[in-house]
Design goal:
Layout lengths: L4 E5 L4 H12 L3 E6 L2 H9 L7 E5 L5 H9 L3 E4 L13 H19 L2 E5 L11 H16 L4 E5 L2 E2 L6 H8 L4 E4 L6 E2 L2 E2 H13 L6 E4 L5 E2 H12 L4 E4 L2 H11 L9 H6 L11 E2 L11 H9 L12
Helix pairs in contact: 1-7, 3-4, 4-5, 6-8, 8-11
Bound molecules: NADP nicotinamide-adenine-dinucleotide phosphate.
Length: 314
């Protein structure tokens, strides 16, 4: 029996797919929004049993469509986020500030609960456009819809991510790997299943009007993350501290690629630790702790990148 209807923007992404599976398991009906049903419909439709998932194609800047979709549900979850800007429409400001602001406005008018996923480690990163756009999005939501809950995850990892899997692909072939800021930046990686559990926890327990930092059980530096990944794929690579001007120059040239490995904005962001803030409330504090340890969990999927694995080049 269907209990509540949940609308998810960015449902086809890493976090979105885990969220769909988590919600339908408890008889919630999910309406998943994607920009391109031909590209993402195949992956989306395998996430839920028949009757529990509707897949809708929509432009996220079509206000009338947003109103129509939000009017039909009990809760709206925003998972849309980008790491690189593309063209005049897909800018950090449009995606991370204007879009969540619009969602908050419509949720307020339609009396629909709103859960927004932002990110950790943004407050000090004044020199990152990504960070400022996410912070401005949070500010507008707080002003417009105080009942919204904002979740701020650290690095989210899984076999479907764009970080550990990308690093393992590179570490499996490159003899040397660059370390930005000496690899000292700290992270608290959280497995995507535990982030999805937190999102489910917030909705099912009606934990609104909160800002929750979503962290894993360990603090690891960027260097320790790379060392763990090397251990998991059984490769020994040289981790070479890269001087900042050189890092910026390579990023400057890389960011024109369609899928850049790193951009100048990401280099700026990497300077700041991605850990719990001093007064922050975390998933541990609200009663939804995460237990999955980074090394043990990555080992479960790293075999694909070991010698002879399907993503290994050797
Ligand atoms: N992954 C992390 O380590 C991490 C860490 C901190 C915070 N977060 C935040 O958590 C949220 C979810 O992350 P994720 O890892 O699931 O991201 P993801 O895998 O990149 O998925 C994001 C989804 O957003 C949609 N999207 C992307 N660009 C869009 C655009 N220009 N217009 C409309 N929709 C667009 C895409 O859906 P369609 O293509 O189907 O439209 C995509 O599936 C994001 O807000 C992200 O910033 C992630």
């Amino acid at each position: 029996m269907i209990t509540k209807k949940i609308l998810i923007f960015g449902a086809s992404g890493q976090v979105g797919r885990y969220c769909i599976r988590r919600f339908v398991k408890n008889n919630y009906k999910v309406i998943a929004v994607t920009r391109n049903v031909h590209k993402k419909g195949y992956i989306l439709k395998t996430q839920a049993p028949i009757g529990y998932l509707d897949i809708i194609e929509s432009n996220i800047f079509d206000e009338n469509k947003l109103i129509e979709l939000i009017s039909k549900v009990d809760v709206c979850i925003n998972l849309v986020g980008i790491l690189n800007e593309k063209g005049k429409i897909n800018t950090f400001k449009n995606i991370h500030t204007n879009f969540p602001k619009k969602l908050a406005e419509i949720c307020d008018a339609k009396k629909v609960k709103f859960v927004h996923i932002s990110a950790l480690g943004l407050e000090d990163a004044k020199d990152s456009k990504y960070a400022s756009s996410k912070i401005n999005g949070e500010k507008f939501i707080r002003e417009m819809l105080p009942s919204a809950t904002i979740i701020k995850p650290s690095l989210v990892y899984s076999v479907d991510d764009n970080s550990t899997t990308k690093f393992m692909s590179l570490l499996s072939v490159l003899p040397i790997f660059p370390l930005y800021y000496g690899g000292r930046t700290k992270f608290t990686p959280i497995h995507v299943s535990e982030l999805a559990e937190l999102i489910f926890f917030v909705v099912s327990k009606e934990l609104y009007s909160k800002t929750i930092e979503a962290i894993g059980p360990e603090v690891l530096t960027f260097k320790q993350i790379l060392q763990t990944l090397m251990k998991c794929i059984k490769k020994n690579r040289i981790l070479l501290p890269m001087p900042l001007p050189l890092a910026r120059m390579t990023a400057f040239f890389m960011q024109v690629l369609p899928q850049p490995l790193i951009t100048q904005d990401q280099i700026n962001l990497l300077k700041y630790d991605n850990i719990k803030t001093i007064n922050g409330i975390t998933n541990f504090d609200v009663g939804c702790p995460s237990n999955l340890k980074f090394e043990e969990t990555v080992k479960d999927y790293a075999f694909n990148w070991t010698e002879g694995g399907q993503f290994s080049n050797t």
